[in-house]
Amino acid sequence: MELRHWTQADAMELTSLCNAVDRRFLSDRLPNPYTEKDAKEWLKMVTDNDTITGIYRAIVCDGKPIGSISVEKKDDDAEIGYMLHNDYSNKGIGTEAVKQICSIAFKVLSLEQITANVFQPNIASIRVLQKNDFKYKVTIPNAIIKDGNVYDLLIYGLTKETR
Q: Residue 112: which domain range?
């Protein structure tokens, strides 16, 4: 597993990935279906803003993107987000990707804290964060409505000092 910069040449693979991932616990910011036009627009934003507004990387195995991970600056901190193709779940790849991107983000973006927002039933993502020393901060009850389901939103945080 490695993290690498996204390029415009990744548009087709990104389109395929975004249409193949399990969306149950992903933000609705991700269009559905995800088109090649969506991919090209996002890849342009990423290549224009990498290391400025955030760190954006492809999670790569065997030479092909199998996921996406980013840390984006917000008003007074930054937020991590990631997705991984189901075929690569439960293999430690997500845990390693989070470890690597947090290290890059703290250094390059000069951050003090990275937060993560997780839908309450997403146990796999919670475990990934806990393995990377993210600490539970707060629960916002009934904060998410996704596909007719109402979820609590759990917020985790990682400070520069605790990583």
A: 2-159
Whichever domain contains 53, its CATH number is 3.40.630.30
Q: How far is CA 11 from the centre of its chain?
A: 18
Rounded Cα distance, 80 and 71, in Å: 4
Number of domains comprising the chain = 1
Instruction: Please give the Cα distance from 119 to 106 (Å, whole number).
Output: 24
Task: Look at residues 159, 115, 162 and name the one whose alpha carbon lies nearest to residue 140.
Answer: 115
- How confident is the model over 5-56, as pLDDT tens digits? 999 999 999 999 999 999 999 988 899 999 999 999 999 999 999 999 999 9
CB-based burial, 41-65: b 16+ in 10 Å, e otherwise: ebbeebeeebeebbbbbbbbbeeeb
Both tokens of residue 162?
């605790």
58/97 Cα distance (integer angstroms): 9
Question: How many Å apart are CA 43 and CA 136, to the nearest integer?
Answer: 32
Other C-beta atoms lying within 10 Å of the C-beta of residue 153: 15
Mean pLDDT of the chain: 95
